[in-house]
Target: Multidrug efflux system outer membrane protein
Amino acid sequence: MKTLKIFLALFLIAVFPYGCMVGPKYTQPEQPQADSFRYSNQPADTTKSVTTIKWSTIFNDDVLIGLIEKGIQNNYDLKIAIARLEQVQANLGMAKADLYPSFQYSGQVNTAQTFQWPSAALANMSWELDFWGKYRHQKIALQNELLATDEARKVILSNIVSNIAISYFELRDFDNQLEITVHTLESRQKAYDIINERFISGYVAELDKVQIEQQVAIAEANIPLIKRQITALENAISVLIGQVPQAIPRGKTNSELLILTEFPNSVPSALLENRPDVKRQEYLYKAAFERIGVAQAMRYPSFNISAIAGFTNIMVNDLFNDGSYIQNVGGGITGPIFNFGKNKRRVDYNRKLAEEMKFNFQKTYLTAIAEVENSLQNTAMYKEEWTARNRQVVAAQKNYDLSNARYYNGYVSYLEVLDAQRSLFEAQLSLSQLTQKQLSSMVQLYKALGGGWSF
Model:
């Protein structure tokens, strides 16, 4: 009965201090605020979020959607992120166990009666009471690290969607450039055949023949370059989707692809909720902040409860007799006296570490706003530039047709035709690249606003 009373008293001591936690209380740092984005062409709405738009709904190409889905299933960066998430989950489980008593058993058998230690079969319990909140702070810190790791997984998901999509647009751009170059080569080759026959017949000077021959060689040289770039992109996409490098299937051309052109435009502060990289940095700051409490708790004494029960006897044959049974419950206290400021420096270190994490959080938030501003401006400017470039291609085609007709009617030299043809070729390539950039800018805007990871 006396032992039971002692145990109950110690248990009450263990339970009561769970309201005692040393350490500062977390508050979210102030962030610079703005009512709207600078380059937004629509009013901000605090109720809308790009996270409500699933990534698969912004593309109209089943081949591209299939590549992204394959990447989500097989990408090794994502598998690594999931493995890290499971590591943190296991670590959190270990930290939670520190809040509770630990139980052990031990046994020893000695046949010699004169041996120093008797035979024994014992069970014991030890419990360090979380009087100052050291283990609770550690548990909360690990919970925030778990959330930060999950946000890191979402960052990788977002990168997979955007990287595969942008790489696919670049691949289709090179396909289009190859088609333009092959068509240009065929046109120049036909012109060379005609001019070469006219040169042999003495109707044109050798200069005309040499000039067109040079342009044929330029077009021929561009084809291997574009093919190398296509192979490199196919290999890069293969790695992104977790497969051995191989040919990538094609769907629609970039000119046929459509992307949702407008996304919900919320206020900049919504990035704190939408963007996983921003949320990750805040969770890391929270984790570092909680470890200040861990360091402060280590400056105070620790309280321990221990209990033992079992059998011990010099005679191994009498080990489990009633007279061999023993039990005991006890408590203890240990604490630092003087260690040359080590514990204080530990608190200072964790304060500065938390301050570093806070600055990282604030910097990430500002970077997120800048990325949205850049993406909003890019989408608007690429649209305007594409319109102008398209007019340039139409005019360059007409200029080439007129120059070609004027040359064969003997009004101009072939140098004018070559200049017009070169301008048309460059304008077509520029328009192809701009179409790819316009598509990519919409994906980057979707990602910058916090989309791309909700599945």
